[in-house]
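Ticket closed. Logging final result for DUF922 domain-containing protein.
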Amino acid sequence: MGFIDKTYLVFSLLILFSVPLVQSQEEVEWSTDFRFTWADFKGPAPITSIAAATTASGISYNFSTSYENNELKVEYTVSAYFYPTRSWYKPEVCNDVTLMHEQLHFDITELYARKMSKQLAETKFTENVKEEVLKIYKTTLRQLNDFQNKYDSETNYSRNLIVQERWVNEIETRLKNQ
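Final structure:
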């Protein structure tokens, strides 16, 4: 077996063994009916972290293209997901306010999934659909990250109860109106 054949075999085995790990990643799609409980946070809390909890969430998308009457059609789905095994909390420092704070992080992710979906709907795509969708996705993730950081900063990670409540109301309103 030559070097290229061995490299291909090793690469194939790596893909084969890593696919079940990716597929076994637990994920929960955002819905109005799903509200966090601490039991949803299944990851181990890092000993060195000063944070009380972490919500691992993200945006996923897929799309397909076709032609109809010589016109490019792009169909897509965009979803917000929560990843329980990558989310964690420290029971000794967390309470119901902390849980509400973490829920809002997931709700904000959903808000940005909707923004991405709206952006895709409003875009007139060219033959470079893949690059254009990826650019929208990356821009959305940057905006989401900035917004999540602003949320943490303004609420002082849920410690400022008045500002925390304002954020809850604002995000609930935005979700209802989008």
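Residues 41-177 form one domain. No further action required.
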